[in-house]
Write a structure and sequence with these properties.
mainly beta; three-stranded antiparallel sheet; single chain
């Protein structure tokens, strides 16, 4: 007996479908104006102080910036200056 294996290959017509670009986050980031009560240091996403944020390591007193939501890092509440990068402690700011 001769054992012959036949392999059949089917050509599949792969149609490329355009994916819709939808945002994965359904909730919008709440933008608030925050003002520094005192000299506020800038922190990273791990809660460590940043040495260089826009040329300095802190934001001066009475400076107003946009807060882009809040995040709790190690039990401390922070306002995001740039989400996943720069934060200031909520205790150092007042929300306008």
């Amino acid at each position: 007996k001769k054992d012959s294996k036949k392999t059949t290959t089917k050509k599949s017509s792969a149609k490329k479908t355009a994916k819709k670009t939808t945002s994965k986050k359904s909730s919008k980031i709440k933008v608030v104006k925050i003002s520094m009560k005192k000299k506020a240091y800038v922190y990273d996403n791990n809660g460590k102080r940043v040495k260089n944020y826009l040329g300095t390591s802190y934001i001066g007193k009475d400076v107003t910036v946009k807060g882009l939501g809040t995040k709790t890092i190690k039990g401390t509440k922070y306002y995001a200056l740039k989400p996943n990068h720069y934060y200031v402690k909520a205790s150092d700011v007042t929300v306008k």
